[in-house]
Write a structure and sequence with these properties.
globular
């Protein structure tokens, strides 16, 4: 009887682990839709680049600001309920976009309703980000938590790659981007609707699968309790503020480049690709490079100082951004695509260096870094404005400067020693939830 009970508990835990990994896959899938849809938005709604980039920065703002209250809900309702809620919000938002983009409302009304729907999707993704990391940590012993989180983040990267490919095939394929479909925008609208509807179906299936898995008795596992240090405890630490700026710079640079890269590669002066081809290049080279860099970086970070690795990555990104901004042809195009590889390790290293070097409580620092994600929206706005007034190439000057500041941050991280903290402050959770890494 005891053997049967143990096996049953083991099976239930494996089932929950599988669902948790699929949650990270869905997060990456949903988050990857924006970059492939921005070129479609410009045609469907007749927008400039600045307006189209709203899709990028609205997700960052919602993600950063919502983290202030999501952890309180996490503490009250638990990770499982929050994951279900996040998946439900994503499905609802996707179905709303599917409805509004082909609705009989006027163009302005449809665009506003669509942005509201995208905010719902971003909120659902943020809920998953806060809850799923903690869930993965709880599903097993503490000594193997890091390896489980690394595996989960790899699934997130895989989801991004699949999402970009899906969005490219449905929203940017040749059949809907050639005249007269391109002129009218109808083909783009239906292609976009199909892509969003696909994400909605995946999210809905995840809700069903998760509910089925969690209808069984709970699995006992090692629990990681959240700290309660408020964010204001980190505001007096210059190093914590520098790390928050580094997070904002990284998130803004990575997302902005991913959002404009299809249109950039489409230019005759760069690679002269069709929108569909450019979308596939974005998926396999830019986001695929990030996936490869994450897997390889995990091995390298065990052998090289993290601050030094961050400096090398940021320096490489500065050079690649400069080539993309000032060059032309295949050199500029492939330089821009290579930035994905350099981005791979930046978030976790900036996060860990900040927590180690700051004298503020780790829980407070973690909360500040979570909220700082919203600051990346500033770079998205600047990139959109630059592209609209000076062309896509000069857009890369903004992330080039951001990566330069991150390189400076890495240099300081190599010099400053780790801060001495109380043992209870070593937990990387906070009043705004657990944050291990963002894709």
């Amino acid at each position: 009887m005891n053997t049967v009970s143990v096996l049953s508990a083991t099976d239930r835990q494996k089932s929950l682990q599988a669902v948790a990994l699929l949650v990270f896959l869905v997060m990456g899938l949903s988050g990857a839709m924006g970059p492939t849809l921005i070129p479609a938005i410009r045609i469907v709604f007749g927008l400039g680049l600045s307006s189209a980039m709203t899709v990028q920065w609205i997700a960052l703002v919602v993600s950063g600001l919502s983290s202030l209250i999501l952890a309180q809900l996490l503490h009250r309702f638990g990770a499982k309920a929050m994951v279900l809620a996040g998946l439900g919000l994503m499905a609802l938002g996707c179905l709303q976009v599917r409805l509004f983009i082909v609705s009989p409302f006027g163009v302005d009304a449809r665009y506003g309703l669509m942005l509201a729907s995208l905010a719902v999707i971003a909120l659902g993704t943020s809920v998953l980000q806060v809850a799923a990391n903690l869930l993965v940590v709880q599903l097993g012993p503490a000594r193997t938590a890091s390896s489980r989180l690394t595996l989960a983040q790899s699934f997130n990267s895989l989801g991004v790659l699949v999402g970009v490919s899906l969005g490219t095939n449905l929203a940017l394929n040749a059949k809907v981007t050639t005249a007269p479909a391109m002129t009218s925008g109808i083909g783009q609208a239906y292609g976009w609707s199909a892509a969003i509807n696909g994400v909605a179906l995946v999210a809905a299936l995840m809700v069903g699968a998760t509910a089925w898995s969690w209808s069984r008795p709970s699995v006992k596992s090692d629990t990681v309790q959240s700290g309660n240090a408020p964010i204001r405890a980190a505001l007096g630490s210059g190093w914590a503020l520098a790390g928050a700026a580094g997070i904002a710079l990284y998130v803004g640079a990575e997302g902005s480049i991913g959002s404009i890269l299809i249109s950039y590669l489409h230019q005759k002066s760069v690679l002269n690709l069709t929108l569909e081809q450019a979308g596939h290049y974005l998926g396999w080279f830019y986001w695929g490079g990030a996936l490869a860099g994450r897997l390889g970086g995990t091995w390298l970070l065990h052998r090289w100082p993290p601050a030094r690795m961050l400096g090398i990555a940021a320096g490489g990104a500065v050079i690649a951004s400069a080539l993309a901004a000032m060059g032309s042809g295949s050199v500029a195009g492939y330089a821009a695509l290579s930035i994905g590889l350099f981005n791979a390790i930046m978030f976790p290293v900036i996060f860990s260096i900040t927590v180690e070097r700051s004298a503020a409580p780790s829980a407070a620092v973690s909360g500040l870094l979570s909220t700082a994600i919203a600051g990346g929206a500033i770079l998205s706005v600047l990139v959109g404005w630059t592209g609209e007034h000076f062309g896509f190439a000069l857009c890369f000057v903004i992330p080039m400067l951001a990566y330069g500041l991150i390189a400076l941050f890495a240099a300081c991280g190599s010099i400053l020693p780790s801060a001495d903290k109380a043992p209870q402050d070593s937990r990387m959770t906070s009043s705004v939830g657990n944050l291990s890494e963002r894709t």
